[in-house]
Design brief:
Layout lengths: L1 H20 L2 E6 L4 H10 L5 E4 L9 H10 L2 E4 L3 H9 L7 E4 L11 E2 L8 H7 L2 E3 L3 H15 L10 E7 L4 H9 L11 E3 L9 H7 L7 E7 L5 E8 L9 H11 L6 E3 L2 H6 L15 E8 L4 E8 L3 H15 L4
Parallel strand pairs: 1-2, 1-3, 3-4, 4-6, 5-6, 7-9, 11-12
Antiparallel strand pairs: 7-10, 8-9, 10-13, 12-13
Helix pairs in contact: 2-11, 5-11, 6-8
Length: 332
């Protein structure tokens, strides 16, 4: 009896190991763009993934794209919004799965938000989903702060929220990269830093509102600096104005509890943040797929600032897409 049980267990283990090494086909629709190239670079050496590539002469061919999105196990869309919607409309294979890195489906019904650390069950939702929306870089950082604080009851859902943010210029894609790096382009800039989106209609704002659990649109003020990648996103809090006048330690505890299960989001100890209070570098997590939250505070003034640091091309784009891909392929 034991021998039969042992043989069955060994066979089951072998099947599990085989399943982990099975090859999956992945198609990046828009692999020539900034995010697409970053994802391709992360996947090109993986033995468990076969990439479907379309040459320059076919990557805009509708019939070729349709064949690819229906033939791949998972397609990753790195496209403008309208092109992403078009790509999804081409799918008629019920087994075809999609990760959309555009803003087209971030708040759409039937799509799972691709932020595994969002709450305790989000990673499992992503694993079983056929449609996953990859978060925006400004949004995932803002949501990572807002959602836990509102869920813990420290920040009212109808609170008037202001978010300030700065990103490296790679966040604007090829056009903004060229504007900073190529003096020969018509829109070249010599600026070291500027605000933008001052029409207050930035494309991430609704995503922040919905996934951040806010009732009203936040006042979102983005900016860009003369550095290629890296990001700092800040939520200022007048603690005296919040119900119960929470202490900075309460804010920190709510965030730490929310992300205690682990993952790529961590909360810095208060002492670490205090040591960085004079100089917080938005480039400090470049080259990683991590996000680090800091709580800066002045107890006497009853004020705090919660800040997220991340690589806008890592956790803010390509790194998050690959994390979602691995969940959907049962690799993590």
């Amino acid at each position: 009896m034991f021998a039969r049980f042992l043989a069955a267990a060994i066979a089951k283990s072998a099947l599990a190991d085989e399943d982990k090494t099975m090859t999956s086909t992945v198609f990046i629709d828009g692999e020539a763009g900034t995010t697409g190239l970053q994802i391709l670079d992360r996947l090109r050496s993986r033995a468990d993934i076969d990439m479907i590539h379309l040459g320059d002469d076919r990557r805009k061919d509708l019939a070729a794209r349709k064949e690819a999105v229906n033939g791949a196990d998972i397609s990753i869309l790195c496209l403008p919004d309208d092109a992403a919607r078009e790509a999804v409309s081409l799918i008629d294979n019920p087994d075809a799965r999609v990760i959309d890195a555009s803003t087209a489906h971030r708040t759409a019904e039937g799509w799972v938000y691709g932020f595994p650390e969002y709450d305790g069950g989000q990673a499992d939702k992503i694993k079983s989903a056929s449609r996953v929306s990859n978060p925006g870089c400004y949004a995932i950082s803002s949501v990572s702060i807002l959602h836990p604080l509102i869920s813990a009851g420290l920040l009212p859902a109808d609170h008037p929220v202001t978010i300030n943010a700065v990103s490296g210029y790679s966040g604007g894609g090829k056009a903004l990269i060229a504007a900073f790096e190529d003096p020969g382009v018509p829109d070249h800039t010599d600026s070291n830093y500027f605000l933008y989106g001052l029409g207050l209609e930035h494309k991430h704002t609704e995503e922040i509102r919905v996934l951040g659990s806010l009732k009203n649109r936040p006042l979102f003020v983005p900016s860009v600096g003369r550095f290629a990648q890296g990001m700092a996103v800040s939520l200022p809090l007048q603690l005296w104005s919040l119900p119960g006048a929470p202490k900075p330690a309460d804010i920190h505890a709510a965030l730490a509890d929310h992300y205690a299960a682990g993952g790529t989001v961590t909360v810095a100890p208060m002492a670490e943040s205090q040591a960085l209070a004079g100089h917080l570098d938005p480039e400090s997590l470049n080259g990683t797929d991590e996000m680090r939250l800091h709580v800066f505070a002045n107890d006497a003034r009853e004020q705090a600032v919660v800040c997220a640091i991340l690589d806008n091309l890592g956790k803010g784009a390509a790194g998050q897409a690959v994390q979602n891909l691995d969940l959907m392929l049962n690799k993590s």
